[in-house]
TrEMBL record:
<keyword id="KW-0489">Methyltransferase</keyword>
<dbReference type="GO" id="GO:0003676">
    <property type="term" value="F:nucleic acid binding"/>
</dbReference>
<feature type="domain" description="Type II methyltransferase M.TaqI-like">
    <location>
        <begin position="435"/>
        <end position="609"/>
    </location>
</feature>
<dbReference type="InterPro" id="IPR029063">
    <property type="entry name" value="SAM-dependent_MTases_sf"/>
</dbReference>
<dbReference type="InterPro" id="IPR050953">
    <property type="entry name" value="N4_N6_ade-DNA_methylase"/>
</dbReference>
<dbReference type="Pfam" id="PF07669">
    <property type="entry name" value="Eco57I"/>
</dbReference>
<feature type="region of interest" description="Disordered">
    <location>
        <begin position="1"/>
        <end position="28"/>
    </location>
</feature>
<dbReference type="GO" id="GO:0032259">
    <property type="term" value="P:methylation"/>
</dbReference>
<keyword id="KW-0949">S-adenosyl-L-methionine</keyword>
<comment type="similarity">
    <text>Belongs to the N(4)/N(6)-methyltransferase family.</text>
</comment>
<dbReference type="GO" id="GO:0006304">
    <property type="term" value="P:DNA modification"/>
</dbReference>
<keyword id="KW-0808">Transferase</keyword>
<dbReference type="InterPro" id="IPR002052">
    <property type="entry name" value="DNA_methylase_N6_adenine_CS"/>
</dbReference>
<dbReference type="GO" id="GO:0009007">
    <property type="term" value="F:site-specific DNA-methyltransferase (adenine-specific) activity"/>
</dbReference>
<feature type="compositionally biased region" description="Polar residues">
    <location>
        <begin position="1"/>
        <end position="12"/>
    </location>
</feature>
<dbReference type="InterPro" id="IPR011639">
    <property type="entry name" value="MethylTrfase_TaqI-like_dom"/>
</dbReference>
<protein>
    <recommendedName>
        <fullName>site-specific DNA-methyltransferase (adenine-specific)</fullName>
        <ecNumber>2.1.1.72</ecNumber>
    </recommendedName>
</protein>
Amino acid sequence: MSNANDNTQTVVPRSKRLRSKSSDDVSSQSDDWLSVVLNEVEVDPRIDTWNCFFQDTHVSRHKPQNSEITFNTPFIFKSVNPAQNLVNGAESNSQRRQEFSSNLSSFSTNFHSEDLVGKVVEVLGILLEEVKKDIWITIVNKDHLIPASFLREFNKLVHDSHPNNVKTPFIKCVEEFRSFISRVQSSYLSPDIELFKNALNSYCQITSFITVVHMLFDTVVMDFLCEDNEEISIRQLSVETFMNIFHDDDNFLKRNIPFDDQPPNASENLEAFTWYYRLVVRSQPHYQCDLSMRFHSLNIHFTTLEPIESILSILYTKHFLNVLAKEQQKDHGQFYTPREVMRFMWDRVLIGKGNITWIEKLLGGSFQNSNLYSNQTPSNWGVLPQAPSVLDPCMGIGSFLCEFISRLTLAAQQCPIVWNNSGAISNLLHSLSVNLWGIEIDAFAYHLCKINITLHILPLYKRFLHLTSLINDLKLSRLHLFCNDTLNLYLPKREHTWEYENLWLLRSPQRLKFDFIVTNPPYMIRKTGFISEPDSELFDERVLGKGGMQAYAYFFWFCVERCREEIGEVCLISASQWMGLEFADKLRAWMWQKCHLVEFFQFEPFKVWRKIQTDSLIFRLRRRNEPISNSIPPIQPVLTESSILFLRYMNRKATLQETLQAYSNFDPNNAQFEKDMHFKLSLPYPMTQLPSSTNSYSFTFLMPSSAVSAYLHSITAHLPSLCDHASMKHTWVESNPLIWHRGPNTNPVYALVVRTNWAYSKFGPEVCRRWLRPVFYWNGKNGGKEAEFWQKMGDELRLEKKESSPAEAYVPFIINNSGGTTIAKDGLEQDRSMYSLIMVDRDAVDKVRREFGENSEFWKYLKEARKYLQTGFTSREVVYCGTSKCGIDVQTKIIHPINYGYFSKNQPRQRFFIDEDNVCVTNQCIYFTVKTTTRLPPYFFLGILNSTTIQHFLSHHCKYDQQGRMRLFRENMAKIPYAAPTHSDGVEWFIRCVQRMILSRQMLYEGIRICGDEDKVASTIVEKLRRGAWQLTGREWQEKESNAYNDETSVVLREEQDGNWVMVKQCRGRGDGVEYSLCPGSGVEQVARHEEEETTEQTTTFHNFSSAADVAVMKDHRTPSGSNISKTHLMKPFFESLLYASACLQYAIDQYTYSLYGINAKFQMALEEELKLELFEAILNKYPRLNGTAGNVEEEEKKGAVPEWGERLFEEVEISIEEGQNLLRQKRTILLRGYKNLK
């Protein structure tokens, strides 16, 4: 092991402050990042001059003794140039620098720093525990040190840690607190004392955290400004001197805001948590000396600010959020931006255009090279360099603002005429205090932000010290940082104060504009977390709505409104759903009118934040001087702005850093870009007009599309829509054949949908026949307050498990009677449906009261459900919902889940199925009905909707993120074109195919229920059915000597979030595993049996195979041990025959639809490859593709005609179905005979 000294850097003597040459390998870098940023005459930051005057490295020359943590080599936190990852070097001011090239990779942190930052956090964590113990002892023994605000904060913690809806105890005075303290150490703790003890522990954790952060701040400042060997008193004095340049209200060494000067919601006054640092740590220097010695013993010296943000964010997450506020990220949408992403965003807004460079953008003038301005001297400047105005409305710990300060420092350092003039440095510092604005709602994050920003001002302050001794002349105005809620910007109680006047300015976009707004708005729906109701004076409800809007949309509005017209820049990172989803229709229209859209960069899920399953979108825009007029655009528009760029990097194996690198390197004029880079350049307004025929104003047209999408658009642009864009009949277009519906919002859905068997036992048959109807439904969750409600109601099975959606293409996968998922066609009334919908709306409440009375179980249930699940609806006496859209009056409808997930190997196709039994649906599903003016039956549209062609349109128009998840909203479905058929023979043949597909799938489902190992068979058959495969080759399909089947363990399908199915192992009766069954209730409750004579007659409809007696037999036949009747392998010919028939029919349906839309064979294959669909040669060789050609007159006549192989395929399918029916009939006969013998 090498000695520590071997890797120790040479110390630059402090008195010399020489600039040394940079390493030779710099010029070997090939990526020319600064060729975009710098003009030819601009100073090139080849050498890392970030901290060139501050390279006072203080490294111990001896191996540390008795250190708690040891390194193999000494470490100094070296500064890293934002333009290049090099240690500090320097050269003379007059020497011209060489050509420099770099790229985004250089914006990563020091490659040493990740592990070493962890070591620093570890040291601070150890110190935090020590401080926490001492704080507890101090509170117990030295109450004279505790501030008056302690009890207020302590009572808040007691209240926050107490269960909801329960009155919390309250400590009114110090004597009462002392009484509590005396009882904490007893062996038995009452609930109140336990609550107080936990609150006190939280208080000590917070106070120790704040204390340690301040001690870290002191250490960094002392290391940055002083030598190691200086006295601790001198080192501490350097901290006080530095803090004295700030306004008294920003000097947190003595900060104490009067309570009345704070906004109504602010918790900025942290005096209750900072007293220990001020009164104990600051008064006893050995505390600070001890921390410095711990770091220095590990050869850690803070001579640069490079690691500070990482240390603060990790420390805050590990020792604050994870300990005290685990829900903070979810409830406040707090997800801290990775540093490389933050730097990338600042790169985008600082890229120079024309003659404007990044240095000019930051300094506000042409100061980059004194050689260009030979007559210019500091004394004859017209204007001193000044920091531009910057806003971060959700600044967190201040990372974006600190990055701006660092780049401003670098810009000054690149300009000798600025860097060597104390007046210029002083002016930059003053302009920073005036032009840097930020808002943060969380008081502790806000406090960390102020510390972070204060530290990042250190380099400019130190440079000022080197240039002048007039330190007392430097006094900054108060920083414009506010602990407030951006959605409200609460004003303090007292007017005519600094806080009041500046918040008043910030509330009005007409009074205050900014040059740069770069931030990461919170990711969350406003109504689901601790997000307040936005102030209507700040936000336009006509654009943003009154509820349900994503919180980040309000920040979009806030930022755009406060951006300086034309020259200001806004760069944000958010989820991408707002680009196309319905909730942001009006917001997109407003943004199109108000903004120049510049560029978009999309990131797949988990790429930016490893724990967030949503994609991310970085986008940049500028505010227009005048909004786009709604009038007719000019006849000959003049293009005055650049094209809108959208980039999507599809290399899923690439790291975040590699993805950012690819985005930075991309040049649309260079054809040699990476094959995984998908891009699109869209002409801006007025060359591009948003469609006027719809109110959706979708931005999805900006996104890159494949060659297949472009081709399909070109051949279908003239076609009508599959359904109408709006629900108003007077707006309907006759040529649009379908009507889109969505089931009602049965709020609360977990109360108005009940388990049918439970309802019959609870309410009685009369109530259920009158007010309950079968509903197509599945549990989307388990647990929570809803589950507690059902336990209280006596139905623990209601939310016992999260269920899979039973929706499948053409026919839903169902299990009959109470054990099943949804609807059965025969049997007793209470056995026809697993779930029922309570059909009580507002008008029906009085009818229920009159018919059954307020003492009935039904009325009591409705009342309890309102009280427990609708606590905010105090005006309602009982729970009810609108039922007009549930579809009970629609005999035939085509249903599909509204949230579809994404296409995958286990879910390769959509799942439209037909209902002809007046089944209700909830808002889990959409459904289509056919217009009376459309002379085509629903079966025709069922086939079209399940075709590969429509699948591609769904993927293109309905997906809302890069992962491909889809929502089948009306506006999205209305974008799908419809090609009407012209051949009646073709339509008839197509409908026959669809009907045979329904029959074959019904038979397959019936065969699954006959098998003994039903769950395992279901997983295999359903997967084959979806993929269009038919060969069964697994071990379970081979004849075995033993019939032993381990019923304790089976492999089943589980539907995960958004409808995606995966194979999982189920252990029956063992904890959570039981919830993941495709058929969740196999035989839980016995069905009533009806006597039925044995029959061998061939049935004409498959529905006769599902009687209650048959189902009872199918369940009971598994009882005899040793019976070979239910061996799985005996059903192999049956399944393979029908699976093959289904595959042929789906191929026929797809080919007919291709023909109808005029899609040629080449693009058919490209489309299927894009969707990752499998086609098998056995079918393709028999039935060749139909080569439809849109626009060809001869081919147009063949569109929608019966294929030349159509009847041949149909005959083969009929044979397969007939064979399947024979096998099924034989199986049922054997089962019925065996059942009667058992009886």
